[in-house]
Amino acid sequence: MPPEESGAAPEGPQRCGLIAIVGRPNVGKSTLLNALVGQKVSITSRKAQTTRHRITGIRTLGDTQYVFVDTPGFQTRHSNALNRTLNRTVLSSVSDVDLVLFVVEAGRFGLDDAKVLALIPPDKPTVLVANKLDKVVRRAELAPWLKSMQERHPFVEFVPLSAKRPDQVKRLLEIVRPYLPEQPWWYEEDALTDRSERFLASEIVREKLFRLTGDELPYSSTVMIEKFEEEGRLRRIAATIIVERESHKAIVIGDGGERLKRIGTEARQELEKLLDAKVFLELWVKVRSGWADDEERLRSYGYE
């Protein structure tokens, strides 16, 4: 076991700080968060706007505790109540952190990226994370692109990487460390997230929902945990998938209930690994027309 991963707390001053991960939808923020934490704490999907809550992931290495905030991708395409809520989450996340990781796809910078970048105060230390480096064919073109990015914002560091490469993720952690203040850790050394098992259960079900419905199901679907009971090493979970139309309900259920069954099976298997417990999972689907544009319903569904 390497010394920085050992159980013994370091002697001398500790470092601890908040790091926001921001960017437009689908640039790989949740994948990066999971890689930085070393375990899955945020759901990932090819569908844009998968992350809807401010999710805290924690990684403690050596004398440093990194507390990451994974934000929703800033929404510029729609203006319903859900998106306004998500955008408020992004803004509040950026305002109270020690460092911002601004994530873009390496070699790309579009209007949606620019709108997110405009939200970051110029005096907030910000690292440009050029993600998905493995997809760049002509690496020589990155140099002029990086130069143009420096002209857009006073970034303190440039870090081209692929979130799927552990060595590159470790290098990012080393670059981040000096920007975190010297102060006592906020969490236990082995903590991974400040979210409850109940919250993680809803996120895992939602991830499987989006992955298995693909582009058929609009993003305005969510998951409510109706029951979460612990009986020793058994978790009894009942969850309701909320959709906006009867046609969406049919998509989720699938022919003969096959798709809903598969969503439940995959979610249960992942939860058993994540929680290290036996999981009994029941799923229902309900139609709640207009929920994504109803402020009261959004609050009742847990949106901040």
Q: What does this protein look like?
A:
This protein has about 300 residues and is of the alpha/beta class. The chain folds into two domains: about 5-180, 3-Layer(aba) Sandwich (Rossmann fold), CATH 3.40.50.300; about 195-300, K homology (KH) domain (GMP Synthetase, Chain A, domain 3). It contains nine helices and nine strands. It has a six-stranded mixed β-sheet with strand order 2-3-1-4-5-6, with helices on both faces. A three-stranded mixed β-sheet has the order 7-8-9. Helix 6 runs antiparallel to helix 8 (about 260-275). The chain is globular, with a radius of gyration of 20 Å. The relative contact order is 0.14. InterPro entries: G_ERA_dom, GTP-bd, GTPase_Era-like, KH_dom-like_a/b, KH_dom_type_2, KH_sf_prok-type, P-loop_NTPase, Small_GTP-bd.
CATH structural fold name of the largest domain = Rossmann fold
Radius of gyration: 20 Å
CATH superfamily of the largest domain: P-loop containing nucleotide triphosphate hydrolases
What share of residues is helical? 25-40%
Structurally, the number of domains stands at 2
How many DSSP E strands? 9
State the secondary-structure class: alpha/beta
How confident is the prediction overall: mean pLDDT?
80
Note the main sheet.
Answer: 6 strands, mixed
How is this structure best summarized?
By secondary structure, the chain is α/β, with parallel strands linked by helices.
Features:
Rossmann fold; disordered N terminus; three-stranded mixed sheet; six-stranded mixed sheet; 2 domains; GMP Synthetase, Chain A, domain 3; 34% helix; alpha/beta
